[in-house]
User: Fold this.
Amino acid sequence: MIKNILKWQGGKSDLFYGPIQSHLPKELFDANKNITFIDAFTGGGSVFLYVLYNCPGVKRILINDYNYRLIELYYAIQTDVDGLIKLAQELQDGYDSSLDKSKYYYDTRDEYNKFNSWEYLDRAAHTLFINRASYNGIYRENSNGDFNVPWCKKDVINTVKPDELREASRLLNLSSVQIAFTCGDFEYSTERYVTWGDTFIYFDPPYRPLSSAGSVSFTAYTKSPFNDDAQIRLKKYCDRLMNRYDARVMVSNSYDPNDNFMLNLYKDYKIVQIDAFRSSGGKNAMRGTIKENLIMNF
Ligand SMILES: C[S@@+](CC[C@H](N)C(=O)[O-])C[C@H]1O[C@@H](n2cnc3c(N)ncnc32)[C@H](O)[C@@H]1O
Assistant:
């Protein structure tokens, strides 16, 4: 079984196999249903993998993220997993045989930031390699949109896990589910996939920083950080999905005992606090077991 494709900040596999599971709509688990599922902030892929394994009621899935490198990788896994494995293995072999692994990483990262003319499979292989060879699987861009995370400082990395990639490919090609990919903003690229009365959308945005975390908190997955205006826009979009399409929505976000922003924003929704384990993200406030908000309109 594969639980995620990339190491990803805020990855949700433990929570979907843990405390989130019991809050999901029951229809997802009923093979007689005909649900559209939208994973609006796909990240490392753990949520759509969970749904593909566990939710026979879901017949259509939209996989969306603002980061086109992720979406290209998942598309490559679906369409040519063997070609992807071959190219990723070449990068891994280069790393293994390199005497200066730091240089190999930074040279590859430079190419990665200029790779627009490459074939999509080559870009996808680089995304896999960079995710394994960079520090802690963090994805961060500078103001030019260049990936700028340092080397992981490990001599041994494991870019290619062929069995896991083939398993992900099998899931992404299941004949019982139609899968679509979009790359863009959660609002502008998902609405046209919503079907009236039977859509469930999970939103896992960059979390609002805890007041105790100060400026070191992590919201910079992309060159435009996810600020309070974006959090408010997301809430308005949830309202629209509910009012216009009778959709069910679920949102994950931070729980801050010293600040009521989230509780006020979603005061007309059901909110529960769940326990999550976080291993990174800045100050100690983001490490260990912390509470998170799980917000639902059902
Ligand atoms: C908390 S992570 C999602 C983690 C994911 N659920 C997982 O299990 O790996 C947030 C994601 O939001 C994406 N993102 C940031 N701004 C976005 C936007 N405006 N629209 C869509 N995706 C966005 C980032 O690229 C990042 O992958």
Notes: Strands lie at 35-39, 58-65, 178-183, 199-203, 248-254, 270-278, 288-296.
